[in-house]
Design brief:
Helix content is 54%, strand content 10%. α3 crosses α5. With 120 residues, it is mostly helical. A hairpin with a 5-residue loop joins β2 and β3. The longest helix has 16 residues. Strands 1-3-2 form a three-stranded antiparallel beta sheet.
C-alpha cells in the first residue's frame, strides 16, 4: 500500500466533497461522530429552517446550544462546528461587520438531518 497511488490533499478534499453530496453519506458521517455533533447540527438546521433557509448567526446558535445544554463553552461549540465544516456538511461566512454565520450546505439533505436518530 505504501507504494500504491497516493492522493494529494486537494484530491482527498475533492473525494470527501463528492462523497458528501448525497444525504446517505452525511448520515454515515453523523453516525460516526459524537452525539454532540449531531445535536449541534440539528439545532443549526432547525434555526435555518425557521429562517427560510438563511444562514444562522453564530451568536444565535451558541445561545440555543447553551440553553439546551448541548455545549457549555464557546470553545467546545467552535470545535464541533470546525469538525462538521471539515466534513463538508456545514460552512460559514462573515458579513461586512465581521459577524459570523453558519449554514448547512445546499447539497445536504436538511430533512434527513432533522430526523436523524442514532442507532443503538
Amino acid at each position: 500500500m505504501r507504494y500504491g497511488p497516493q492522493l494529494t490533499a486537494v484530491e482527498k478534499t475533492k473525494k470527501v466533497t463528492s462523497t458528501l453530496k448525497t444525504g446517505v453519506a452525511v448520515l454515515q458521517v453523523l453516525a460516526s461522530l459524537a452525539p454532540r455533533h449531531t445535536e449541534v447540527l440539528q439545532q443549526l438546521v432547525t434555526i435555518q429552517l425557521e429562517n427560510a433557509g438563511k444562514s444562522t448567526p453564530y451568536a444565535a446558535l451558541k445561545e440555543v446550544c447553551m440553553k439546551k445544554m448541548i455545549t457549555a463553552k464557546d470553545e467546545t461549540l467552535r470545535q464541533v462546528l470546525n469538525e462538521l465544516s471539515d466534513h463538508a456538511i456545514i460552512d460559514s461566512e462573515k458579513d461586512d461587520g465581521g459577524n459570523e454565520f453558519w449554514y448547512v450546505q445546499s447539497n445536504t439533505s436538511i430533512r434527513d438531518i432533522v430526523h436523524f436518530k442514532r442507532s443503538k
